[in-house]
Amino acid sequence: MRTKILSLLENDSRLTTKDIAAMLGVSEAEVAADIKAMEEGKIICGYHTMVDWDKVSEEKVTALIEVKVTPQRGQGFDKIAERIYNFDEVSSVYLMAGTYDLAVFINGKSLKEVSSFVYDKLATMETVISTQTNFVLRKYKDHGLIFDRAKSEDERLAIVP
Amino acid sequence: MRDPLSKVIKEIKPSGIRKFFDIVSEMPHAISLGVGEPDFDTPWHIREEGIYSLEKGKTFYTSNSGLMELRKEISKWYKRKHDVDYDAKTEILMTVGGSEGIDVALRAMLDPGDEVIIPQPCYVSYLPCVELAGGVPVTIELKNENEFRLTPEELLAAITDKTKVLIIAFPSNPTGAIMTKKDLEPIAEICKEKDIFVISDEIYSELTYIEEGHTSIASIPGMKERTIVINGFSKAYAMTGWRLGYAMAPRVIAEQMTKIHQFAIMCAPTTSQYAAIAAVRDGDKDIEVMRESYDQRRHFLMNTFAEMGLPCFEPRGAFYMFPCIKEFGITSDEFATRLLKEKELAVVPGTAFGDCGEGFLRISYAYSLEQLKEAMGRLSEFIETLRK
């Protein structure tokens, strides 16, 4: 049941407990209790809105920085990851298997802002061996959601036997 | 000039749905819960396979019965899912939707005057197809208090010495009723004892909301040899526009069905058949995702009906609710017409599926939650005005 609640909320976090209860055929109280428990247990970590910033006039730049680091004895990658993710500019950090170690996503107002963050903050860290900055040109799909797909009209005939 | 039309065709009534379709078409802001098809797009991996087949130039006729590879996959799938063995070579025929299968099966089996038992409310094509095939339809009125299942008593009362075929269709369009193994067993006994053939339209087989899932009557011992199973891709994989179904029948019947199909149709659409291979092979999880989503909306409507005080038995299959509106003292047609004109909400009156649908509405929940919420708001307001 918790998995079902999570799938529903992951798709639409604005669903009310009443809706969820009705859709799963259980009581509102049960749903509310489960959600509360999952929030407290940090299973549900937050509720976000998908925004297509390209449609808003404000300038925004997203970059993926591939970071190679030297893992530290006793702390592995966690310590360095923490030093990176604590910056407000950083929106996501993943530890990767492959040609680099950390995938760091950065949101900035301009190319300049992103580059100066990389040069001043990231590249200068002791354990960082190298960085490669990739700028995002366009987001097509994020979190399972296809951007800019006009919500297509229901093309079905209005009445079908 | 002579009358260009046949007497048979002139006798057949047009579908009762037509009138509503015409009214809704004139109303741009109307919401409709009148659609009998999934609201999902066909899963991409299935569409992609169809596209790939076109790129590869697979644009020719297939054999009359359909692609062997597809029939083999269907044979495996039916064994796995519904525990019935069908020989891909001699017992499976790919058709243009389930609809063609019904038509061809009836034409292959009926002689003039043969009676065909049709439990109603039911899908709109059975009765005219029987008449077009020269048969005589004998209807049974299924009852709300039996949750619109067919009972052995009702069946026995309808059988005469002319009865040849029984058509059953569970999960049901329009009621959403299902018949479990336990419900089907006594029906099967009667068919065997009275030597009656069964056309079992199982197009909604993948959409049941009970633990044991769908039972095919063909899986009951002694029934496969007297059953024609009709199924297809439209409902399970959201592939209505691909027009692809199949019929599975004992060899003697399948051969004659193939003969009619060969002369009337040639073969089912080739692109659809290639896409369908991907569906049967890798589509189980698609079915599960859609089934779960329908189930959530079903719960949502059950709940909303309860809040409105609108009586409705709990449907456990397909994607329809069949609430009872007898308390309002107006006909289904009048209710649906007024609901459409006053609240711009389209539903289908139960009578479109047989006279015994009087006093009921078919409400499809193949719509998004937002659409359903908006629609239920309008329905609730309408009911309040009627109750005043």
Task: List its traits.
heterodimer; A: 161 residues; alpha+beta; Arc Repressor Mutant, subunit A; Alpha-Beta Plaits; 2 domains; four-stranded antiparallel sheet; two-stranded antiparallel ribbon; 5 helices; 32% helix; B: 388 residues; alpha/beta; Aspartate Aminotransferase, domain 1; Aspartate Aminotransferase, domain 2; three-stranded antiparallel sheet; 13 helices
Question: What would you note in describing this structure?
Answer:
The complex is a heterodimer of chains A (161) and B (388). By secondary structure, chain A is α+β, with helices and mostly antiparallel strands. Chain A folds into two domains: 39 residues, Arc Repressor Mutant, subunit A, CATH 1.10.10; 86 residues, Alpha-Beta Plaits, CATH 3.30.70. Helices cover 32% and strands 21% of the residues of chain A. Chain A contains five helices and six strands, in the order αααβαββαβββ. Chain A has a four-stranded antiparallel beta sheet with strand order 2-3-1-4. Chain A has a two-stranded antiparallel ribbon with strand order 5-6. Chain A is extended, with a radius of gyration of 21 Å. The two termini of chain A are 34 Å apart. Chain B is an alpha/beta fold and 388 residues long. Chain B folds into two domains: 139 residues, Aspartate Aminotransferase, domain 1, CATH 3.90.1150.10; 224 residues, Aspartate Aminotransferase, domain 2 (3-Layer(aba) Sandwich), CATH 3.40.640. Helix content of chain B is 43%, strand content 13%. A seven-stranded mixed beta sheet of chain B has the order 2-8-7-6-5-3-4, sandwiched between helices. Chain B has a three-stranded antiparallel beta sheet with strand order 9-12-11. A two-stranded parallel sheet of chain B has the order 1-10. In chain B, helix 3 packs across helix 10, helix 5 packs parallel to helix 6 and helix 11 runs parallel beside helix 13. The mean pLDDT of chain B is 96. Chains A and B meet through helix 2 of A and helix 2 and helix 11 of B.
